[in-house]
Amino acid sequence: MTKWVTIECDGAPHARHENGFAELDGKFYLFGGRRIQPVDIFDPKTNTWTHASPPPMEIHHFQPVVFQNELWLLGTMTGIFPRETPLETAYIYSPKTDTWREGPEIPAARQRGGAGCVLHDDGWIYVVGGIVDGHHSGTQKWFDRLNPQTGEWETLPDAPTKRDHAPAAIVDNKLYFLAGRETGRHNGENYNDLFFATIPNIDVFDFTAGVWSTLEDSILIQTAAGGLGVIGNKIYYVGGEAGRPEAFTELQIFDPASEKWSAGPALNRARHGTNVLVYNNALWIAVGSGARGGEPELSSIECYTPQ
Q1: pTM, full prediction
Q2: Are the beta carbons of 23 and 283 closer than 8 angstroms?
Q3: Per-residue pLDDT at 1 exceeds 70
Q4: Phi, psi of 117 (to 5 degrees)
Q5: Is residue 191 helix, strand or coil?
Q6: Residues 142, 128: contact at Cβ < 8 Å?
Q7: Helix (H, G, I), strand (E, B), or coil: what is residue 42?
Q8: pLDDT digits (tens, 9 = 90+) for 168-204
Q9: Strand pairing class (19-24; 5-6)
Q10: How many helices (H) and strands (E) are present in the chain, helices listed first?
């Protein structure tokens, strides 16, 4: 497959953005986002959408992880723009029982949303960056981890760069924290300024050495709120939003071995505010917003298989 393919589906998901999108046992789960909406479930074998229970509260601005057949959310916000508030606990969805519940508490001094979140092979969930006061102020460089088995929380060395609306990924025992913006850098009450506060560099945490570094080569096109997937030890960053009115279609590929960026085929529909998942060595992206901010909300799904 040399380009993104928009899938013709039986049924449709609820249009949404700032949502989660994750794969578990061959099914894709689309959940959260602005407002309270049902979970949408996609079967890639039949290209069919079905629906499940909504969360009991509004949840948005998170990067979900899969742990023990459940979907875990950390670094999550609730509430309305521009003063959204971070959740005080992890939030967990169990597809097997179609139920939601609160997870371990997050220390009050480390609560934020719009953070990067990844599960490491060591069994801990790592959370990096984020913002403490919605889209108003308090972008952070915090780095923490949660043991989902015990609820233990540990504070780790800060990342080099403050950023939020930024995803993270792990390749070869290194965490890559990239793209995003410093939303809290905007000028007073002029919230349009925040879209211009994007960040060019990549911060890398080496789990073996226990230290951060910042790579020299910048991302090709600076955006925030794009989706992120890893295939074949390469990082694929998709879409996003920045200063222009339209969202982005670009696929930007980072090779950690060479520490270089390259461009891939563009999305069929510009979008931001959603995640990318990887299934059968293909990238999948669904819904999101087609322009910076919240409108129009989309309901399509696309996939791309790197060569």
Answers
A1: 0.97
A2: no
A3: no
A4: -145, 125
A5: helix
A6: yes
A7: strand
A8: 999 999 999 999 999 998 766 789 999 999 999 999 9
A9: unpaired
A10: 0, 28
Nearest Cα to Cα of residue 213 among 202, 228, 224: 202
Q: What's the pLDDT at 125?
A: 98
Phi, psi of 184 (to 5 degrees): -70, 0
Please give the domain boundaries of the chain with CATH numbers for all domains: 5-304 (2.120.10.80)
Phi, psi of 229 (to 5 degrees): -140, 155
**Residues 105, 88: contact at Cβ < 8 Å?**
yes
Question: Residue 5: how many CB atoms within 10 A of its CB?
Answer: 14
User: What's the length of the chain?
Assistant: 307
* Coil/strand/helix, residue 196: helix
Q: Which long-range contacts (CB under 8 A, 24 or more apart) does 203-209 make?
A: 203/159, 203/160, 203/161, 203/176, 203/177, 203/178, 204/174, 204/175, 204/176, 204/177, 205/128, 205/143, 205/159, 205/174, 205/175, 205/177, 206/173, 206/174, 207/120, 207/122, 207/173, 207/174, 207/175, 208/173
Structure tokens at 211: 């230290």
- Other residues' Cβ atoms within 10 Å of the Cβ of residue 230: 18
101-152 pLDDT per residue, tens: 999 999 999 999 999 999 999 999 999 999 999 999 999 999 999 999 999 9
What is the token pair recorded at 34? Answer: 């602005």
